[in-house]
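Quick one: DEAD-box ATP-dependent RNA helicase RhpA from Arenimonas fontis, structure tokens please.
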Amino acid sequence: MSFDSLGLMPELVRALSAQGYESPTAIQAEAIPLALAGHDLMGGAQTGTGKTAAFALPLLQRLAVTGPRSGPRKPRALVLVPTRELAVQVNDSLKAYGRHLRLGSATLFGGVGMQPQVDTLRRGVDILVACPGRLLDHLDQRSADLSQVELLVLDEADRMLDMGFLPSIKRVLAKLPDKRQTMLFSATFEDGIRKLALELLHEPRQVQVTPRNAVAHRVSHVVHPVDGSRKRDLLIELLSARWQDQALVFGRTKHGCNRLAEQLEKAGISAVAIHGNKSQAQRLKALSAFKSGDARILVATDVAARGLDIPLLPLVVNYDLPMVAEDYVHRIGRTGRAGASGEAISLVSPDEGQLLRQIQRLLETELAMVTVEGYAPGRAVRMGNDSPARGRPSGQQPPRRHGRRGHAGQRGDSHGHAGPNQHRTSQPDRPTRRASR
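--- reply ---
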């Protein structure tokens, strides 16, 4: 199947082809024709499946076909997202896909000054990509006008509800025209999401391309039991042995992530941290350093569990297990994307046995537990009912090492273009590339 066959206009197909995108992913093949036909959509898809293009392409086509209304240019499409990082990445995609269209887009998020955003809105834009809180700030100041919005997208709706944005979303909805096309994308469809969908959508078509809480088949999982006091030493040993690989390391607290990044730096491992207390400039700087390969390790709280697009990232490490089992799925979704292989390593202390049990119940599988020589914990990791965690499941192979080729920090030519077998880092949720690339 090609993008031509989905009914996309030539300008969009040209932009996709110029980036090496030829074949649509499953979510794109199902969602794009329905969206182009004007249907409201409920899309069930995790990051890494191509969902950004699934709504961005029909959004761009609709605005290009209908054309602007008379008078001052006001937003005709609104994309609501939970985080600043995702807002930037969605906007980058809209600009890349719409390079041959006369459409302007802008982002609205907190952590930066209001005035530059106000100036952009005054000049006029066609598409707004916004976090709910900052958008409400502009609506309260009357610097944003949503009266001409024809198309609304809620991206990662489950995440927005988890972060407590439901009241803000409802306040934004009250400012939108009743007559509009709405698309809602979510990794899960819990009761809260379905209730929201009933309020938002009109006779929606549902597209589900990944089962609930599914994990990529090409990701191997391994658990290393270790005392909490020795996690840092074990992490340094593991990362030092894999000097050629970049890794995303998840911690539980903002202070802990900062401290861990500093400790890795002292051990000679280049690392940066990202979390909610960082300013927007600091977060973007850290992400840029990681994506360029200047920093080999990115230490993050769950603020980075969704929305980050790091092509061909070989390794995710859970330095601390997440308190909510579903966040394990979102964390490891940063690796094993777009058909590539990946590995998820979890350092589990005896006190985290119950959290591990919840994760295994959610995944409906037993994760391989391998004790690293010299790091056996003082007591067994128990997962309830006084039963110690089991060893490697029967038939499970040890996790594979990743070679140097294709890791996230690999660079292209001196002009910044991607080299052979590389992906550009600026495009989230890419469609499938040509095999020749």
